[in-house]
Each structure stands twice: as structure tokens, then as C-alpha cells.
């Protein structure tokens, strides 16, 4: 189904699954771009500028940066600038740069909150973003929500399995009364969450057994998504009962092949604006399918209004 002329063709089964509360949207930094927040690359650049540091003479950081492995860049920067017994300057800078203020465009967040619901109609949205823009969007639209982060996220399938779920941590938001948590920011953090401790890997595997996932706001080669995507791919090889995973993304050379190589079904658009326009239209449909279809029929029968 095409919600708009420039929309990708959204499978009817996927639309039905969203309506039945069987889908969880997993949202990345791209969702917050129109709200004024940076990409991981821009965030990395801004951290250096805020700290007054340079990677010019640090080969490890230069090489990782050129490979777009920004989690490894920040790990090296944090390691060489951290003084014993003090707070990480890297994390202080990140909190400062991603601080949420009023007046941001939250249209993308509101659409995704409408689409990512459980069977009871409660918000159940997963994000790797640290910011609290989803919470602020929910407040603006008078949506009741819970906010959970890191290891405190309710286990998939449990009685409390709903809310805005920050897989990689959450920043403080005093206006909303939300405390900060530990952040999965650097390669060391990713290694702990997905490999050594492995709690994030276990969570994603359990989530895949219960729900279809739709990724929004990521590229197939995003550094922040590397271990998560590898986890998804490895799990699909081992367990045949896992649900489908889709990625909504702007088409680029070879991008569809990259997604498919990871066992993910791409839904590609020609432009980011078309992605979020489609999500907005899809959200209108999901809110009241009968009324949406009725309006569409009226427009066909009476195009002049």
C-alpha cells in the first residue's frame, strides 16, 4: 500500500500487524534530526570542539573516524582525557550537546508514538536515542506513557512490557522529572552491553521472538547500530522462529543489498522528507482506519472538495 505518491509500497501484512499491536518501532538518531539534534558524526565533531580537543595527532582516532566508527573514536578520546576520580568529560559534553529544550519540531516523534503500540493501545517504542524528545512528544499529545532505560527496561512479554524504552540509555530531563542513566556511547559500552554482559543482546533476541521490528532513523552501516545489527543477523541464522525485521530508509547505492545481507527487509524511499510524510500519513490511518478509508473514498468521489 502506498500512503502517498512518493511512498514506498508498505506490505499489507505489515500494516495489519501494526494495527494489531504486534510491531515495535526501533528508532535512531535520524528521527531527531529535524528537531535540531545531531547525527553521530556531528555529535562526535561537536564533542571534540566542546572539549577543545583534536584527533589530528591520535592515529587511532583518525583511523576510526575515517571508518565512521564513532563509538571507537569516542572511546579513545574518553580514555586519554579521563582523569582518575573525575567524571568523563566526553559524557559531560554529550549531555550538554543533546540537552532537550522546548520548541523542537516533534512531528516525527508523534507519528511514531501513534504507530508503535501494543495490543492494548499503549505506547511501546524502542529507541537507541539518549534524548527525551519522545517523552516530550507524548506530553504534547496528552499520551500516557512510561519511560524506561537500559537494564531497567521491562522484559519482553511481561506484564509491564510497554512504554518509551531507551535501549542505550537516557539523559536527564528535569522538566519531565526523568533522571539520567548510564549511556551506551563508546565501543567499550557496546562491548559490555552486547558481548561481555550481553543483556542488550538477550533483550533484542527476546524482542524478535515476540514482535516484528521496524527500524527508522538508521543507516545499514551506522556505527551505533553495528553490534545490534550483528546480533539480529546471528540470531536469525540460529533461530528460525524469529519475526521479520524491516528498515525504513533513504535509498543509496547498494543500501538495499546491505540491509538484505543482514537479514533485514528494506523499505526504501527517494528522500527523507518522503519517509516522515509517509509515517505521518500511516499514523493517521492507524489511529482510525475506517475514517481514513472513508475520507479517501470521499476525495475520489468528490475531488473538487
UniProtKB/TrEMBL annotation:
InterPro entries: DHS-like_NAD/FAD-binding_dom (IPR029035). It comes from the Bacteria. SUPFAM superfamilies: DHS-like NAD/FAD-binding domain (SSF52467). This is Uncharacterized protein. The lineage of its organism: Bacteria, Pseudomonadati, Pseudomonadota, Alphaproteobacteria, Hyphomicrobiales.
